[in-house]
Design a protein that fits this description.
Blueprint (H helix, E strand, L loop, with lengths): L2 H20 L1 H36 L6 H25 L5 H8 L2 H13 L1 E3 L1 H20 L7 H27 L1 H23 L9 H29 L1 H5 L5 H13 L5 H18 L3 E3 L13
Antiparallel strand pairs: 1-2
Helix pairs in contact: 1-9, 1-11, 2-3, 2-8, 2-9, 3-7, 3-8, 4-11, 5-7, 6-12, 7-8, 7-9, 8-9
Pfam families: EamA (PF00892)
Membrane topology: Multi-pass membrane protein
Keywords: Membrane, Transmembrane, Transmembrane helix
Length: about 300
Amino acid sequence: MQKETREKMGLLLGLVGVICFSLTLPSTSIAVEYFGTTVAGLGRTAVAAVLVAVILIVRKEKFPSLRQFKSLLIVALGAVLGFPLLTSWAMKSLPVSHGAVELALLPLATAGFAMFRGGERPSLKFWVSSIIGSAAVIVYALHLGFGQLQFADAALLAAVLILGLSYAEGGGLARELGSWQVIAWAIIIGAPFFMIPVGLSITAEMLHAPLQAWVSLIYLSVVSQFLAYVAWYSGMAMGGIARVSQVQYLQPFLMILFAALFLGETITLFTLAIAIIVVFSVVLGKNASVSKKEVHPQKMVNKDA
């Protein structure tokens, strides 16, 4: 596959992942109301673990090396433990639009960690586009009166940092281990630690939760926790961590759109104006040059090829 075609495919897969992730906060907001923080945050991993275990066994996947296992621990800490738990807790008291604005800082966090963990060196043009996108969402947050941080805000900001590190680490590892294998093994590593707290948190009342709550929990388990990451890590492996991370600037506005459709939250003209500015920053950023460290050919083993 030619480099240009590969990068375009990476951006497309990244967009698919972002669309899937954009339904995560709305789904979490619904699920946490009926299942609580632990089940909605960690229970999704327990369910996803059953799915990925079957896939890994059927495909007879080899166990990761010790070096890869260390990277998978970082992925598991962010994508499997930290982000789901922190966002589930925050969504108990914050509207989805609030969370969406703060999560818009994720691309900047991902690119920053990519410089240290993924071996990428974004150009000045890339950072200018990142600043434009970040400044736009900060103005949006201030306009809506979200300037005063609460404990839930701190949880979301911590979630941004930990997931940014996880994205950067997973994107780099996907080049040699395979995109879906990264999140699959991360889920397997994290799941055993979640079984007991999830089991102790399940109550009889949860069985009577409405259909939308069950659909939300299933979506979080199958799509948000696994399939979305397959698309996302594939995209970063093909298009580059920093460049594909720019697509995340669309995520807060997609979240707000889905929140309006499914939760009845309001979309204003100001929101649409900010969305246009953010889209512009994505277009600018995707054309920016990004240098990479050379990787030994023997390590470039991508099982998805």
